[in-house]
Design a protein that fits this description.
By secondary structure, the chain is mainly α. It has helices at 14-30, 41-61, 65-91, 97-125.
Length: 130
């Protein structure tokens, strides 16, 4: 099914805006990581966090709803990566634990919004009952 998008830009999406906030927070938190993690955990966590809004934007730009849904699924996977790297950083005692709590809340909210967007898009794929 062709993806009809009343939104002018991915920038108009709250889920994209929240993804950007999450990525900004991850970049800020990882600045305090040990220098020897620059090419390890810091890089991995930043890449995963940046891919959250990037995949939302790319999916939104696609012509077909199925493509959009595929990118949202990838986004949820990236979000799980961010969450896992954050947990590992806490266990390794990198950064301040209080910062991880607010990021965990952002992750939970982002996941809820992504699932809601998926439900909304899937409902457009199902033909109405007679």
């Amino acid at each position: 099914m062709k993806h009809s998008n009343p939104i002018r830009s991915h920038r108009d999406l709250g889920v994209w805006q929240l993804g950007m906030r999450l990525a900004e927070r991850i970049y800020a938190i990882t600045q305090a990581f040990p220098p020897d993690e620059r090419f390890g955990l810091t890089s991995q966590q930043r890449r995963a966090a940046a891919s959250v809004p990037a995949n939302i934007a790319e999916g939104n730009a696609r012509d077909y709803t199925q493509d959009y849904l595929r990118f949202l699924s990838i986004t949820i996977g990236s979000l799980a990566e961010v969450e896992t790297y954050l947990e590992l950083a806490v266990r390794l005692q990198y950064g301040a634990p209080e910062h991880s709590q607010d990021v965990e809340e952002l992750i939970a909210e982002e996941r809820r919004m992504l699932r809601g967007l998926q439900r909304s898009l899937r409902s457009k794929l199902i033909p109405p009952s007679p």
